[in-house]
Amino acid sequence: MTSSYYSAIPALSWRDSAVLRVAGSAVSWFLFALAFTLLFQVSFSVMALGGSCASGGPYEIAVECPDAVAAFAPGSIFMGLAAVGIGMFFARGFGTPLTTWAWPILFCGLGGLFLAAFFAAGEVVGLIIGLMFEIMGLVPLILEFRGSPQRVFLGQRAANGAQFYEGERARRSLMSPRTPNPEGAVRPNAGHWLLALGITAVCSLLGYWVAGVWFASVASSGS
Asked: What digits encode the pLDDT tens for the residues 80-104?
């Protein structure tokens, strides 16, 4: 009887480890903050040069890209995509969901940069692109909030994999297709909130700081 009971329990995957979920959330937010900050600084530098620059190639270049722009422009994009993939594969519903926030942060952040350029220089193109980016970033975030405000900040699972109770009005969303409030769902406590939001805040700030130091060092070495 004992052997048949234990054989009925599905074996846990190595991906179900609480440590791995926590590490996945931490690494994904650090990498995304690093990538986005680098991309933002690249975009700001290019806009300061007039909106375009080039580097390398057989043709005469009107505006040469700074070394930092050439170094980080392509890599920051792929780094951001890798960060989202790490969050999906390893965090698996634990912590502030990067899958929910990556798109809004990217488009609203860059949209703000275009809007700032419009107010500074009166570029109508900056106004159009800035407003379009803001809409593209905010609409998906609003839809996720309608699914479950708690899920947007806390995630759908605890570090041990237990699914949270999200309230009777919670519903599925594009980024969280799993049925909310299954039997046995646990109510999140202060520790759950502190762990999830603490990881997001600390790792994001660390990524922002590393990006600033890294970009400045490359920029100064090329000047």
From this structure: 999 999 999 999 999 999 999 999 9
User: Residue 38 has what DSSP assignment?
Assistant: H
* Parent domain of 156: 18-49+63-222
Instruction: Write the burial class of residue 13 (CB in 10 Å: 0-12 exposed, 13-18 middle, 19+ buried).
Output: exposed
Radius of gyration of the chain (CA): 21
In a domain, 202, yes or no: yes
- Whether the pTM exceeds 0.70: the reply is yes
Q: Which residues contact 189 (CB under 8 A, 6 or more apart)?
A: none
How many structural domains compose the chain? 1
Rounded distance, CA 220 to CA 223, Å? Answer: 5
Is the residue at 144 inside a domain? yes
Q: What are the tens digits of pLDDT across the range 54-63?
A: 666 555 556 6
C-alpha separations of 13 from 20, 90, 95, 156, 161 in Å: 11, 12, 19, 19, 11
Beta-bridge mates of residue 203? none
